[in-house]
Each structure stands twice: as C-alpha cells, then as structure tokens.
Amino acid sequence: MSHSTATRIQDFIGDPVSQAPPVPRAKLEEIFNDIQGDLRFDHELNGCLNCGICTATCPAAHYYDFSPREIVQLLWTENLEGIYDAMQEKIWACAQCYTCAARCPFKNSPGGLVMMMREVSIKHGMQSAKDVLRPFSRVMLKLISTGNQLAPDMINPDHFADWGPNISKVDAPLKLLRKAIPMATLNTTDTAWEVNLKTSVELYTIWEMTGVLGQLETIDENLFDVITDIMEEKRDDWQDFLDEQDDEDDDA
C-alpha cells in the first residue's frame, strides 16, 4: 500500500479562468530563484501558522488589496504564478512599516519579503516597477547627480499647488537667507547643501559598483543616460583637478 507524500509546494501552473496566456514556467522559476537566493530570505521566512495577525495589524491591508499573510503563504508554498501576480501590483501597497514583523509569532518579516520582491521586479524590468518609480524620476535625478534629494528652490507655489492656499505665502529671499548661514556648504538654493566633486564621484562609483545604476537602466533608460552623462562630466572634472594638482606639485 503506497502513501502519498504531502508537500507544501504548489506545483500547478496556469489559471483555468483567465484568458491571459500563462507566463513560461522557466521565467516564473527564474524570478522565484532570484527571491529565494537573496541572503535575507531564510531569515525573513520561517514558516506560517496562517494566523492572520500580520494582516490584522497591517495599515495597508485596511485600505488596499494587500495581505502580508498572502505574501508569506505564496512564498512558503512556492506558488510561482501567485508570486508573479502579486509582483504586478500588490507588493507596491506595502508601507514598509514592519508592524507585521514585530507581531508575527513565527518571526517572519512579510515587509522584508516584499522588499526582496520589489528589488527582483526592478531587476526583471517589470512594468509595475516602471509605473511605480516613474513619478520619482526627478528626485532620483536630483539625488544621484547632486547628492541631494531636495532643494530649497523646489518649495514654491508653482510646484506645490496641492499644498493649498498657505503655499502662496512661501515668498522668501532664499539666496540672501542661505548666504547668512555660517556653513559654506549650505550657501546654495539649487541643492540642500553643496556636495564637493570628490564626494559626487565616490557616490557615483558606489552606485555603479553595487548595481544601482544597472537597475536604473532597466527601469528608465532615458534617466540612466542623463545621469551617466552628468557623472561622466564630473569624473572628467575630477580628473582635470587631479592633473592640475600634479602639475602644481611638479612645478614646486
């Protein structure tokens, strides 16, 4: 008499109700392997009692079609198609507050798992990642090209009309006020503070070596090209500065 072996792995691929063509199994496995291969995966996923405490305490679950428990269950059962579907929209509803991790009796971190799924969606250039990150392109350009996320001159009535009538009162002589600040690095309105050339080049090198820029190219190729041009110019300026220093040393 043979006995079937129970398994938590959900092996079926395909939705008999949907008319959409199924994603190839090889692609689904590649995506899951990228998530599972993350060094954080085994620390963030330890099992699931299906108790629902994470979802009951999740702020996003009250307002969106999102459930931390569902994320854990999909990954725990290796439901490849369900994981892929969740990465199209649901994972972007998470606020990353990690209330789920604090409450889970199994010490799971659904918020941490969502972060991995987001990173993998960026790596694979999913449309959901492109749609979510597109509104942040101006901030990303500002951050990577200047080392600042915001600048004083960004706070003006034209850019923040949704702030209501009080924004119209923002009418200060910013340049004059910033010049009065003792620290020279703050005497600017184009950025929150002045980042020197060496630091800019070092930041760019870090983003390049850690794969951040490669991921950006996958999501927004135009933004990648603009940032690359800016940083290559800064690299040339930094090299010119070093060459000038060497020439001065030789003359001395």
In short:
By secondary structure, the protein is mainly α.
Distance between the termini: 93 Å
Query: How many β-strand runs?
Result: 0
Q: What is the averaged pLDDT score? A: 88
How many helices in DSSP terms?
Answer: 13
Estimated radius of gyration: 24 Å
**Beta-strand content bin:** under 5%
Q: How many domains make up the 3D coordinates?
A: 2
Please supply descriptive tags for the structure shown above.
252 residues; Fumarate Reductase Iron-sulfur Protein, Chain B, domain 2
Describe the structure.
With 252 residues, the chain is mainly alpha-helical. It has 2 domains: 25-124, Fumarate Reductase Iron-sulfur Protein, Chain B, domain 2; 133-247, no CATH class. Helix content is 52%, strand content 0%. The chain contains 13 helices and no strands. It has helices at 25-36, 41-44, 53-56, 68-76, 80-86, 99-103, 110-123, 127-133, 137-146, 174-179, 197-209, 212-219, 221-251. α4 packs across α7 (110-123).
SSE arrangement:
Elements: H1 25-36, H2 41-44, H3 53-56, H4 68-76, H5 80-86, H6 99-103, H7 110-123, H8 127-133, H9 137-146, H10 174-179, H11 197-209, H12 212-219, H13 221-251
Helix pairs in contact: 1-5, 4-7, 9-13, 11-13, 12-13
